[in-house]
Design goal:
Chain lengths: 528, 399, 103, 209
Amino acid sequence: MRILLWKLWMGYRIFGPIIELLMAMFRPFAVAMYRMGGPIVAQMAGMILISAVVAVCVGVWAHAMLFGFVDESILATAASAGVELTGAFSYVSPATWGLTPSQIAVQLQQVGGVAANMSGVAQYLLWPVQFGIVRDLVGLGALMGLFNIIPVYTIWWERKVAGRIQSRLGPMRVGGWHGWSQSPADGIKLLLKEDLIPDGADAPLFRLAPYFNIIPSALAFVALPFGATYVFRELDVALIFILGVLGVEVLGVMLAGWASNNKWSVYGAMREACQMVSYEIPLGMALLLPVVTTGTLNLTKIVDAQSGGWFHWLVFSSPFAFIGFIAFFVASLASCKRAPFDLPEAESELVAGFLTEYSGIRWSFFFFAEYAAMFVVCGLAAILFLGGWHSPLPASWGAALGDAWYARGVKGLLFSGPVWFVAKCVFLLYVQIWIRWTLPRIRIDQVLYACVQVLLPLTMLMLLGTTVWVWASTSECETWAMVTAITRYVLGGIGLMFAFAFPAIAAYGFYHRRAMVGNLVQDAMPGS
Amino acid sequence: MADTVFEASPDTMIDYDSSQQGDLRTEEMLINMGPQHPSTHGVLRVVLRTDGEMVLEAIPHIGYLHRCAEKIGEAVQPYQYVPYTDRMDYLAGMNNNQAFSLAIERLCGIEVPPRGETIRVAFAELNRIASHLVSLGTYGLDMGAFTPFLYCFREREMILDLFEAACGARLTYSYITPGGVHDDLPASWVERCLEFLDYFETKISDYNNLLSFNHIFVKRTSRVGVISIDDAIGYGLTGPCLRGSGIRWDLRKTAPYDGYENYDFDIPIAKPGGTDEIPEGVIVGDCWSRYWVRVLEMTESVKIIRQALGRLPNGDFIAPKMKNIKLPEDEVYVEVENPRGQLGFLVAGDKSAIPSRVKARGPSFCNLCITEKACKNVMLADVPAIIGSIDVVMGEVDR
Amino acid sequence: MTIGLTHYLIVAAIMFVAGLFTMMTKRNAIGILIGVELVLNAATVNLVAFDRYMGPDRLDGQITAIFVIVLAAAEAALAVGICINVYKNLSTVDVDRANSLRG
Amino acid sequence: MTNTKHNLTSCLLRLVVAGGGVLLFSSQAAFASEASGVTNAAAPGGLLEAALFYFVALVAVVSSLGVCFSKDIVRMAVWLFGALGSVAVMYFLLAANFLGAIQLIVYAGGTLILLVFGVMLTSKSPWVKFECPKIEMLFAGIICAALLGCLCIVLTDATWAGTMQVVPGASVEAIGKILITKYLVPFEVAGVLLMIVMVGAAHLARQDD
């Protein structure tokens, strides 16, 4: 070991000056870049943000197109060669890691070399994409990026929405355009803060607890599909897998509360345990409604069962699903510790609950986990009840467009694509935020009352009703088919009413905001 | 004596007996709530003896903000002491100024000019609204509702703007002094104030829709921390806490000062749920009743301010030659109706310009005594609810 | 580098023995419960491994494992309830002191 | 400042490790998903699977030993979580996806929480320890070591009657079907048992009057 260090040191003595020279050359370059770029970034931050978002979208789209192209060319080559493919190439998916590179090489040789209809430079450029591990690394990068970006921007958005609800502006300064880099800046600040461990705390557990919280919520993204092919791993038990890993988060909170050596933290942990364990049951019951209706635990297949436009979404399929969706949303609020169920971290009762003793990066881990879990449950709600990545328009309308590459793009935008999934998630997140900044917190006995005496019987009844409904639907009776169709359109109509009323009310409020807030506020308050 | 309207007796109190709760009996725990706790409204420290989520006993400890405010009164002249009264109940500085000024005036037999008297009433009532707005907002905060707090503070800012226009200060006004008020109203102040009142009256319904009648809020505060009439009188509660127990007692009616007898207003008191617009489940003397009395009082204050501004006479606003007056060898005790209850000042003179004794009777201090009784066998989340509904200001408790 | 049945069985055996040791040496009732959970898990791993390697298309092992998990959950709920009752009566969860039937 | 730097790097390092864990886990989940899934079974026997198995087995063994030898009851529960989690991963490796997910929900999300909850309810101070006499530890150790040795010898020497053929894992539908056909009676009995347990636990936890 010492010899190794010595060798390293000798290496540094020899190469050190060269490295320092390079650094010295690099430094003025960096400074010049900063001088040039700084004002542009400061003045055109909004533009840069928008173009970055657009670039990311284009990048993801191009990445998916690329993988699709490679897959198709391989399939086409195989079909022309008359070879039956096995393993990873047998179905089109952007992320597969079924075979080792050597096995892929063998298969490619079997089907006649590297995709025959690729030529020249493209052949070499696309060659690495054929390997599952390359795709997986790209996919994992995208996954980790999403896992970082989603909480950060949900926090920013929550602050903006909260500000608007409370007749103030929210973050406005950092980054220029509506404080768009407030959350990243906060994150950097938290990274650099001192990591305090209270005296008398169980230090190893105290350090470990945030990871118990953040890793499960990252794992949930592994199985959460954003689109038909935009899924890192298409698991056949994706639904219960996500439910299971989200359930593990409770352990992190309990350990955090226990290890902090603080009585308020223990209170937070106990409340969390009570609340989570009891709300997991109605949550699971509500999750079973779509499972009973579609007969699968695979999220992609559940969404596939809902194609066909607005009226075919599961939430409108029966009155039971309609009420079950609301029950699911309430239970998901409780399982994310969102107001009015934010008892484990109730700041006016328990100081900060299990978070009391945490600071710096470990504290932010809990927040990352919480906001990521929020997104995951919103995604589950969208997938299970609101048609996932299908748009309200029936996909059959797009058949006329054909199958050209531009037609596929238009279809992805109009009929089914990740953009719809994200839009639905963002709307549900907005509802969660809206509820949080409107309602007071409920008491622990009321929390348990709401679970055991309201939600649990309700979801059980809904499950029973859905089962009967599905059983009746299999009977091929004409009258019943009419009943289901009428129910579907009535419920869909109610949903449509909400869907139109919501923006209408928002627009009304926006245009009459002066009258609603009053002239005095305009004159007296800064920023109005 | 006050006319009692509705009886609140101990048997209507919600019974959190552990046998009913069916909870597990676990270790009892002593836990410090405060002095640095978000919902103890300053530096109150409450030691809780808890069994799980149940609070068996809550003992308030005070004194973290003691600043010898009373003793200082025996070293300075009365007009110099007025700023110290601001810092007792810092949310209701005007009312504190008024109480001390009234005591000095009564001791020296000074006649306040009618304009000064009317301005005093208007400012005292404006400050009552401002103080109740803080109380409402922070009570929402205690319940976990963040938004009403900012709405309340938005309106309070406007009142503070009005105060600032009149006296230059936004928190410690020292505006009302012995003999009247120390400055006249600036130009167009009355119009601005009336504009604010028009605006503010529409906002009260916003608070009600957002917070007062919110189902969760009602469930959290009704039948919690019930204070019976006997307790309320026995512990010497005053102000909204007393009226929240159903006793119609308000010094502005029962012992009017500064010409309150000439104004037409009601004294709101708590009523049981189901009557008027009060939601079901509320009983007289619970946290929601105390909260509701404050909401109603704001409307009454608006009424009083309108009358005062309507009849604002011309003339002097302060009695002449108020500095270096010799206090006679006598002592007086004067009480006024503070937003939190009866604030009394005892002032004794000894023929010098400096009082020989100044003693304050603070409403928050007396109201806080009920905490120990009200917080017996409640849930942990009810403790902030009860303390918030009593609405203490620690600056005045510790003085 | 092929992973066979034996690999799983040996891991399960180590877990089983560890659980046994925990049950023998811990005095805390909940500690003993944790040992029981470990033993049950070892058994379940065995069942699933046998199912995978020895019982093609029959699924018996997996179904049995599901029942074991159900039973373990039920047992844990009851045992924690008993522990709390013991604690209520004796103010401790030391199993050596819970030696009278009278409670 | 050094402290901050140290913690920063350690946190980032651990996040990287966590990311690696996610990668490993998801890759083996892919195995299982493909193995049990729609079309063809990838041959499980690759280098990757072996690496994953050894990693998971190491975690399981270390966690089990941690359960044995840690004094603090909450730490025991954390070690138990390590064992349960690695067992869940082993189920995924064994192409028993459904069982893996169930293991996560029931054990990690339910039973373990219950245990930690029990610890919190039944300890006076955060770190209660009941010591076991040294001599008992010794005897237990000898017995367990002997048992482990015997088991290892038997397991490695045994020849199994089975096919030793790896078959594609079953889908959830297959499990569901067999559960309500062949195993209907045990299934119902388990349901009744659960209800009895629920009532019993409620009765046990009831406050004495």
